[in-house]
Design a protein that fits this description.
7 strands, Immunoglobulin-like, single chain, three-stranded mixed beta sheet, about 15% helix, globular
Length: about 120
């Protein structure tokens, strides 16, 4: 069979180039960092109104406090970037409302996880 094109690489050169490309792709996959954001909202359960200045705590699976934030006027909270492939607990803290706690499993994908917590007045 006659080739209509001339090969660019022959024998060992081809395999060296191929192995270098595979190594580069492996390094990219290993160094690709997952960025996962965790945020949400806290509402009054009865009125469905946003709650301002509610403490929202983030605990890891060893029950260690990772971060504490407060809701804004629209009831929103934002923990920013959290570790991927981890389990967390999110707990509210207020003198006027019962505490609420949820579990959150963070995936290995780069994405935003949103959660809503509804609190009952004391």
């Amino acid at each position: 069979m006659k080739l209509f094109f001339k090969p660019l690489f022959k024998g060992a050169t081809f395999f060296l180039l191929l192995s270098a490309l595979i190594q580069l792709s492996d390094n990219y996959v290993l160094s690709h960092k997952c960025n996962h954001w965790l945020s949400g909202a806290v509402l009054d359960k009865e009125k469905q109104a946003p709650l301002n200045k509610i403490g929202v705590l983030l605990f890891d699976n060893n029950n260690i406090l990772v971060k504490k934030v407060f809701t804004d006027r629209s009831g929103r909270f934002d923990f920013g970037v959290v570790n991927c492939n981890k389990a967390y607990r999110v707990k509210t803290e207020s003198k006027l409302y019962n505490s609420e706690e949820i579990s959150v499993i963070i995936s290995s994908k780069t994405e935003i996880t949103e959660r809503k917590l509804e609190l009952k007045p004391l």
